[in-house]
Design goal:
The chain is mainly alpha-helical. It has one domain. It has a three-stranded mixed beta sheet with strand order 2-1-3.
């Protein structure tokens, strides 16, 4: 579950994460496979950071995603940040 900035609790949507990563990696030659692998890595990191409630803040999901993208491809991280980070 994800806590939004408005306080609403919504189910985590892996597909939505995949699409946002794919959009950020479109400049890469193998964007789809890169996005699939990155999504798997990010979901693993999110699971590690879940608290006892099983929920995570939306901003934390964004920060984890940005950190993974920054290590993989700084251009993709910049594109992601422009659309998804405040």
């Amino acid at each position: 579950m994800v806590h939004s900035s408005s306080g609403k609790l919504t189910p985590f949507n892996r597909d939505q994460l995949l699409i946002s990563i794919y959009e950020s990696c479109k400049h890469r030659q193998d964007a789809l496979n890169d996005a699939l692998a990155l999504t798997q890595t990010i979901v693993g990191d999110i699971i590690k950071s879940l608290g006892a409630t099983g929920a995570i803040e939306k901003d934390t999901v964004g920060a984890i995603t940005h950190a993974v993208l920054e290590r993989f491809d700084p251009v993709a991280a910049t594109v992601y940040a422009a659309y998804h980070l405040k």
